[in-house]
Write a structure and sequence with these properties.
Two copies of one chain form a homodimer. Chain A is α+β, with helices and mostly antiparallel strands. In chain A, helix 1 packs across helix 2, helix 2 packs across helix 3 and helix 4 packs across helix 5. The longest helix of chain A is centred in the middle third of the chain and has 24 residues. The model of chain A has no long low-confidence stretch (mean pLDDT 93). Chain A binds a DNA duplex through helix 3.
Chain lengths: 218, 218
DNA sequence: ATTATTTTTTAGACTTATCTAAAAATATTT
DNA sequence: AAATATTTTTAGATAAGTCTAAAAAATAAT
């Protein structure tokens, strides 16, 4: 069907598409895939021939319906496996990504349906990212960035934008996890950092950079 | 580390080694891998350079200690995944092989250790094949072929030698599964077929070809 | 022990995905 | 708008794994 590599390109293009409404540039793909622009161009031609992307030279690319379907199905597999690893094999949330990166390419349809059933159709992965269903529909998330909360407001952490292990470990250290209750005690204008009261117990200080990578319930 | 393809060659050589005490021939590998002898030769050179096999031109190959370790670890992963698929995802025993064939190449050490723990350290896969432990040691099997049973003897089915889906489905139809109690009612000399009483209920007739692919407890 | 057959290896070509270096197109600056 | 800089594409090479066709070695047959 599609090669491991093709699937990874489609996934990368999908992710980048969500950040702009224009076409995705060759360089941005190269950067994300940690490869060279010339390699990207070669692959774009191939994906275009397979009708997985819309591609005109120098114009940037968008996914076709078919391409989007493939991308979403890979993301679905990735997140279901992450959920499995954390819930059943006792992985930490900062350990699952590289393993799921491999598991997401296992081909069997039956496997992923049965896994979904076994896990009881989870809606969010361990990082709080939404898991699309079999038809490719995402659960409607009602969440805002932590930076958008106002002073005195209370909320619950739903997920993160950045999945790097180092970031997740830092959050663990601060005591910030999925489900943690937070209240904005103070917002500092000079650097946009925030003082948070967590679970009505201790207070922690988070930088703007950290806060903008955390989603809370709305 | 080792490529998907290298791992498959090592697995094939390991399996073939168990059938002869001489070195494994190029042609036999080619047949098993459904590839051409010339491709096999190329790969043998590569595996030899990596010290995974002992190879001298025209002589046939054997696995080195290192090569055997890799092969056994792949088999371990394959069988643990098969067990998972049948026990937790409700796969039938004739559906698991192709999926496990992919899953066995997932690299994470932690994954397979945790999976083993989650499954409660099973000793046999759904086909009755022994699962080596982390150190590569197989459980000592005490089993004989169904063809070796004598008239009147009672026993329990422990496993099969042939894993083709069509064969497994045929066994299902006959009512023969892992754990099924069988008693040899009659052995027919002219074609070596056997009449079996299963679970003290119905009697079935199995050909020599079928019987020699079934393992029973000793 | 020579010939014939089978097995195995070599040589050269193809495919997929990658790279470097250079050319072409687009964007930015003055 | 001309010059400069950036982005993207092309051309040609490389590595892994495969293939066909032919050569070399080993085995079997007369």
């Amino acid at each position: 069907m599609h090669s491991y590599t093709e699937e990874n390109y489609l996934k990368a293009i999908y992710r980048l598409s969500n950040k702009t409404d224009k076409g995705v540039s060759t360089n941005s793909i190269a950067e994300r895939m940690e490869t060279k622009a010339s390699s990207v161009t070669d692959m774009l031609k191939k994906l275009s021939e397979k009708k997985l992307i819309n591609y005109k030279k120098y114009q940037g690319v968008t996914l076709t319906k078919k391409g989007k379907q493939v991308a979403v199905s890979i993301i679905r597999k990735h997140r279901l496996w992450e959920y499995f690893l954390v819930e059943h094999l006792n992985f930490n949330w900062d350990q699952v990504h590289p393993v799921a990166e491999e598991l997401e390419h296992i081909k069997s349809e039956l496997l992923i349906e049965r896994l979904d059933e076994f896990l009881n159709y989870p809606k969010y992965d361990p990082h709080g990212d939404p898991i699309p269903d079999k038809e490719g529909n995402f659960p409607i998330p009602s969440r805002i960035k932590l930076t958008e909360m106002s002073k005195g407001q209370k909320s619950v952490i739903l997920g993160v934008m950045e999945n790097a292990a180092s970031f997740l470990q830092y959050l663990d250290k601060l005591g910030l996890n999925i489900g943690t209750e937070v209240k904005v005690v103070e917002k500092h204008n000079f650097d946009n950092s925030i003082d948070l009261l967590i679970n009505n117990k201790q207070t922690v200080h988070v930088s703007h950079e950290v806060a903008r990578n955390i989603f809370v319930s709305n």
